[in-house]
Amino acid sequence: MLMHIEKLTLEEQQLYAKGSNLTDEEVKRLHKIKVELDQYWDLLRQREALQDAGKNPDKASIRPEGTVENYEQ
After folding, report:
1. N or C, which end of the chain has less CB nearby within 10 Å?
2. In this structure, are residues 26 and 15 in contact, taking their beta carbons and an 8 Å threshold?
3. How far is CA 51 from the centre of its chain?
4. Running DSSP on this structure, what letter comes out for residue 55?
5. Percent of the chain beyond pLDDT 90?
6. pTM of whole model > 0.85?
């Protein structure tokens, strides 16, 4: 899971390095990467919380975009 996060982070950084020269497809990809990163970080936090509570961390699951993207609202 951490390797996947690292791969997404690298791709995100490469896209950000292009600045405002992103194509429409790259803008869409950047949004998708952001959502996926949020989902994976959320999954890691869920796993840690379950483990801290003495429960099975394998019970954690990836939550939908609408859930992880609305945490700060």
Report:
1. C
2. yes
3. 20
4. S
5. 84
6. no
